[in-house]
Amino acid sequence: MKTDDLIGELSLGLAPVKPLTPPERRLLLWLALAIPYLAVIVAFDGLSQELAQRLAEPRFLLEQGAALATALLAGYAALSLSIPGRPAWLAWLPFLSLAVWLASLGQGCWQSWLAFGAGGLILENDWGCIPSIMLGSLVPAGVLVFMLRRGLVFLPKQALLLAALASAGLAELGLRLHHPVDSSIVVLVWHGGIVLAIALLGRALGPRLLKA
């Protein structure tokens, strides 16, 4: 059999493949679905009475800006991993803004230490943030998993870690709008710890939810 005939026989009856929408457009779609969901959660609990005062603080704005950047970059990187041939370095983008977020919280801890000594680093319990962040992550994470499954993911652990980081980061941002926390050490340990735990859980579930 000639090569042309073999190619024609193998390609007989194949349906055309529709390419995936670029990751930046799918990221906008993800935000269009995730933000209203988080807005409902925030509206249910009500905005913090201290929010106006906190928005006037540069460090608070830096923290929330870095958290938002982490969520957006992690979502973009996760969606990029579902498209073969995309640059591998994209997966590292969200860790730059994550480092800024953690550094801003660390600076807040240092300032508390200088102002109040060891008393400024007392770690209070904040159990209420656990269900809030997990609930806020649920729908955004589910939407991202659905989007990722429509592509071809060769690195499921990394892709779902980034998807979980994006969802948890967005949920943490929403939590700060209605959950007043002044202590940087509380945000660093509790909020940061929960975001990290959700990201690691996503990495563990990656091979099950995303099959290459």
| Ends apart, CA distance between termini | 33 Å
What is the assembly state of the chains in this entry? single chain
SSE run: HHHHHHHH
- Class from secondary-structure proportions: mainly alpha
Tell me the helix content.
Answer: over 70%
How many separate structural domains?
1
Number of strands: 0
Output mean pLDDT. Answer: 83
> What is the 3D form?
elongated
Calculate Rg over CA atoms.
Answer: 21 Å
Low-confidence stretches: none
**Share of residues in strands:** under 5%
What about the largest sheet? none
Number of helices: 8
Textual characterization of the structure:
By secondary structure, the protein is mostly helical. It has one domain (27-209). Helix content is 72%, strand content 0%. The chain has 8 helices and no strands. Helix 2 (23-45) packs across helix 4 (58-80), helix 2 runs parallel beside helix 7 and helix 6 (129-149) runs parallel beside helix 8. The protein is elongated and about 85 Å long. The two termini are 33 Å apart. The relative contact order is 0.15. The model has no long low-confidence stretch (mean pLDDT 83).
